């Protein structure tokens, strides 16, 4: 039995832990051989492989990133892509494929599964917005990094009568902002699910200063003002990937608050720092268990599934469950934490 | 409405986060007043109180320990203890009590509840061995500290052909050892639930050296050799609390391995370092949500309950559930991880 | 004997350690009393004082920021400012003043000293650009935070074929960029002292990709392109303090590299995260020893001096030495590290 | 030109940074080739070599330990050892040798230099007790780890009315204890240079409890009671290396304090955790600059020297300077910090 492994999408602390667990158990318990495919779906598409044995996964548990590297290649957008993948899997003698990735990567996995490829998925998103699993690995690491940044900013905020805005990841879902804001003791948390009222934000900022404390705001990169809530400060041009390059929401918000309240305001945009580096214990534990469960699923020929966390159990759910709807912050979840905000 | 709050047993990162959440929501949402009792059950027993308002809980979220201090006082072991507690609660005008603690503290809470005291429990144990909740706060912090120590030791083990033994907390349950060992990539994990065979441990150590790697062993403080598995190295005398003072299992194991295999072996006993300091994001999030739920339970007069985590939900269960049986590592949970050991 | 203490300018990890050392030794060794002045020179100017005894400095050693708060108030720019300061010092019975701050704060101290005020200075700048001392406290903390960010980014750079630009503090001097870049293994370090050639930077980026590695660039916030080296991407408008608000050099550089090379590029702007939070051991040791030496200088009536580090000794130098020229990165110091760059 | 490199003695964060700097500059600036010798002096003695090119040192800057591994082999204690080393250096075409290590390793280097071997030394000791250099790399990392442990213990000490003893490294010199104790805000620091009076230590402990604070003591592993100051608690047997195996000074001190004062006391023995793991920025900077200077010394044929830090300069001193006397904590250095103790 030969099993292929690939990682797709943005990197995420814990990817290497999944790969290591898959290979370690696959080799020692089931006697499998492995083929690593490079750069996500580009690997099986262009037949770019790397050796993947026990020695190749030694020492990678604490390392961020992915030894298989990653890309956003989508074979369904490439003429004859699916056929080439099938051919390359066959020519490498690959009987089953473990695909580790987010919405896009697992979306491709789902379609390939429907087309007869033996595939097991491992959900991955640092934003924690995949349905079907309580948590995804990488999220805990990101939240801790953001929380530590907020911890550090508290001392500056206290010493300087200054507004501090922390922009964290989360294009569609506010999980990182909500958890890091709650854990870091932020005063305002703005998330994509709930468009914010800039007037109210500024009122709160002024109120906070009157009680002699400097406010810290946490904002998801995907947070947006309410319709009609006009922000004067506009973002810069978009890049090819749709990201605002000069002046994301964090920078704009800081400037808008400064303009409206006259209080000095500064933004910290954590960016890629949140997704690199060594995973936390929780993420290593979760990623390792995901890997163990994925190779067991292969062994049991339970294809078309993805692994998931439910409570403290690792279970399997149909691949489609992980790629259907995004898991968003619900109003009652935001409301639960709101006692600390505003 | 006046609500009393106390913390009992060993300290644990997250206690202050619970206290803060209770007070913040109690004051702002319900308009309650609070009384802090010092040193666990000694507070209401001897009527030692501290002020507990919004200003008193400011800035404590990231701080380890407990602003209410703690003790192991058990009022049921003191003549007239229960009556004095009831009197002191009455004299302070306390309508309900939130007791934050482990098996012992919640055991007292359960009995007091049966005797008519309005009490809500918040489970606390760094060892994660309380039934009725998926996780307890403080555990994630302890596991991360232990994992970071193991991460550091890997480089020494690799540079020196030396056996390293890490003793972690866990007198009855091996959760910290299992999680930290899995997350840190330990080669052997010994837990109280599964008495170990010293001969096999030493065989593994020698095997590992033959393949040119130095082994790292993680051992719970409560791990014991199998019956008949005689360790030559004996522990030192016990102290008044039943703790071995000179030569716990970590030190003994290192010496025994050195004696048997001739390989240099060293122990690191992490001890109190695991339970102090700032909580991780997970523990702050969990402790904060426990606090919010506890004060809501008081508001709903849902006494005799304790709060608990199930998946990502905070629920309430009867107090007795948290104080019945210990939650131990099950054989299949150990077996899941065993592919990385031995 | 009554001694006043104030902190001016931007906050910096270690300020509280200085204050604590001054007060602890002043009280226990010399029997002095202390007056804390709030918000830098605004304190003695407007007579805003806070109590400053042994109890007030308890537990502040590990805390970032300053319990005395800070501002950029300059009494020489205020009508009658100097007289008011002298009056307020007198009315508080203050015999000597310890001023903790950077170029601006110590510049005021120097002038006041010339006008007969008994003042001792403690140099403070996170940028490490004050003459007369080997290092200033806060710098080591900032470098470690920047280095940890670079460590994290390495894994992302390796997994993604992506250029990462890290903007660190340093408006006039490149010390943080140089030390963090050296310690973090950056591939390019751009500092204010040496205007950069954007064409060469891009050539290096492309060269690096050809050898299959993704480059990490560290850039001081004050770095500028060479004259004639035209960057197409312009910065946004300046704020009242002369800071570029939308699009600092980090963001601009990332975009310019992307435009010129076609490689995806991202910037991380660490900002205030570098100056908050708990100080490193080095900074606590240095700040504490600065404080001890400052109060000894007061005891010896050695006014008009500031404390400084020379090797492992704490010495005193005339105040003017700390406020004369900025200490810049010298060409040979940059050249020493250059073997790792480009 | 071919240059040999070896690392001897205990591992220390920064060893890999030295190796990397030596190789990177040696190859790119001077066009040298390198031979790595394994396991300290055992490498050239038994002709155990490893490849050491630019690719071999890639990514090792942040990693603790040493890719060349280490041992305590002393060729002067082995019949014909020196001749074999000379032969093996010759057979490998090695023109010069860079020896990275402490007193023992550099002692061998000094003698070999006298016997005509072209050798340059790089001083290494985590204890910081080598003469001739302001600091050695690894020390700053160890002090930070110890300080973080003390930070964590403060919260437990405050919550529990409990004495906490932290045993840190330092067999002959108290540098780690002094710096970590000062940076961590310890209440008592006991070092090898100044035998302690157990009666006074216990008096202080009781005094501290009367003022309602729990004491934290930091003790070097090599600290000893004063002559005549009889400790009842005896240490356990010694191991082959002269280390006390069960019951070092930390454990003994905790028990003795508990016996004498009746207060609960606990010891934390940090052990190997202090010497493993990633180096701090200071240690990476220092180790890197040591490496750069060492290869420059080779290029200039300045043999029989070792590199050293003086202020912020890297200089060269005769090898004998680093291996003469130990650098101990001087009474005035201890006295400077003593205002915080007792």
UniProtKB/TrEMBL annotation, chains A, B, C, D:
BP terms from Gene Ontology: canonical glycolysis; fructose 1,6-bisphosphate metabolic process; fructose 6-phosphate metabolic process
E.C. no: 2.7.1.90
Gene Ontology MF term list: 6-phosphofructokinase activity; AMP binding; ATP binding; diphosphate-fructose-6-phosphate 1-phosphotransferase activity; fructose-6-phosphate binding; identical protein binding; metal ion binding; monosaccharide binding
Domain Phosphofructokinase: residue ranges: 2-297
Positions with a binding annotation for diphosphate: 10
Record text on activity regulation: Non-allosteric.
Biochemical pathway: Carbohydrate degradation; glycolysis; D-glyceraldehyde 3-phosphate and glycerone phosphate from D-glucose: step 3/4
Binding sites annotated in the UniProt record for substrate: 125-127, 162, 169-171, 221, 266, 272-275
Cofactor: Mg(2+)
Domain of life the protein comes from: Bacteria
Primary site of residence: cytoplasm
One Pfam short name: PFK
UniProt enzyme class: transferase
Keywords associated with the record: Cytoplasm, Glycolysis, Kinase, Magnesium, Metal-binding, Transferase
Protein purpose: Catalyzes the phosphorylation of D-fructose 6-phosphate, the first committing step of glycolysis. Uses inorganic phosphate (PPi) as phosphoryl donor instead of ATP like common ATP-dependent phosphofructokinases (ATP-PFKs), which renders the reaction reversible, and can thus function both in glycolysis and gluconeogenesis. Consistently, PPi-PFK can replace the enzymes of both the forward (ATP-PFK) and reverse (fructose-bisphosphatase (FBPase)) reactions.
Subunit structure comment from the entry: Homodimer or homotetramer.
HAMAP family: Phosphofructokinase_III
Annotated protein name in UniProt: Pyrophosphate--fructose 6-phosphate 1-phosphotransferase
Organism encoding this protein: Nocardioides mesophilus
